[in-house]
Amino acid sequence: MIVLKIIGWIILAIIALIVFVLCIKVRIFAEYSEIDTRVRIQWLFLKIPLFPSEKKNDGKKKKKDKNEKTKTDNIPENATADDLTETSSEEPATQLPADETLSEETPCAQASAETEGAPAPKQKNNLLKTLYDAHGIDGLLLIVQRTFSYIGTFFGDLAKSLVIDELYLDVRCTKKDAASTAIYYGEVCSALFPMLGAMVSKYKVKKYDINVYPDYLARQSSASFAVSMHLYPIYLIGITLLFGCRMLFKVLLRLIVKIFLPKKKENAENSNNAGNKAPVTQN
With bands split at pLDDT 50, 70 and 90, how would you rate the model's confidence at 92? Predict the structure, then answer.
């Protein structure tokens, strides 16, 4: 009994530790400018760069170094320019022997001769046809509608779970002359501020600063922003499990049951008909 109690307390402690870790925030940082773009995730002591990824850059550098080494290794140390040209010219040219001739039959004729004696290929069962026969057009439309609605609710709940801690936006409007710059500045403001206002009112935004200004001396327009947000992993796991349960019980099981039930009914009817038939007796 004492051993079982100790094991139970250890299991409860592990579960409590997992729940505590999942309740720690996952922070997302994104920065964009004309010079550089960076996206990274920070959770506990882990810092994961999403863009640009350091692994890809390291792999490209290693490949370049290997290619340069192989090129330099093939060249002898005391080689001159004349030696390099002689080695390139000494490579033998591949030629076909004169005795070999092409076959008289063309590839199309050979393929047609092979396919004449071959048996006809079996027709594969089309998945869309089986789904249509099992559900009909109304059933398929209902399944597609449910699928898209569940996906929409999943992304909606995910967006609601995000909390924007800081949002900074800087936009510089510039055109060829002063009149077109002023018009362009008004267009950008009329399109940008309502969108940002809807985002701030719909989602949780703690701190934000938006700066849109016309520049009559610059040559080109520019934009830059910096965002930091956080998310709780336990909430993300709950949303994912709920989405998986909805898809399993409302979509996948409906697809499977409607396909396999008619086959079972046909097999039962065939077995009943075979049992009802009386054996034929000869006089």
Answer: very low
pLDDT, residue 82, reads 52
Torsion, CA 126, CA 130, CA 131, CA 132, rounded to 10: 100
95-123 pLDDT tens trace? 444 444 444 445 544 545 454 555 544 44
Residue 83 has pLDDT above 70, yes or no: no
- CA atoms of 192 and 178, how far apart (whole Å): 21
pLDDT interval class at 252 (50, 70, 90):
confident
In whole angstroms, what is the distance from residue 266 CA to residue 259 CA?
Answer: 12
For residue 146, the SS3 value is helix
Taking alpha carbons only, the member of 250, 207, 202, 209 closest to residue 229 is 207
Query: Is residue 175 within 8 Å of 168, Cβ to Cβ?
Result: no
Report helix, strand or coil for 229. strand
Do 255 and 143 touch, CB atoms closer than 8 A?
Answer: yes
Distance between CA 205 and CA 116 in Å, rounded? 71
Taking a C-beta distance cutoff of 8 angstroms, is the pair 162, 232 a contact? Answer: no
From CA 152, how far away is CA 123, in angstroms rounded? Answer: 38
Beta-strand ranges (E) seen in 112-254 are 163-173, 204-214, 222-231
Q: Which two tokens stand for residue 279?
A: 């054996």
Q: For the chain, how many residues are written?
A: 283
| CA-closest candidate to residue 131, choices 278, 31, 223, 260 | 260
Question: What integer is the mean pLDDT of 153-176?
Answer: 90
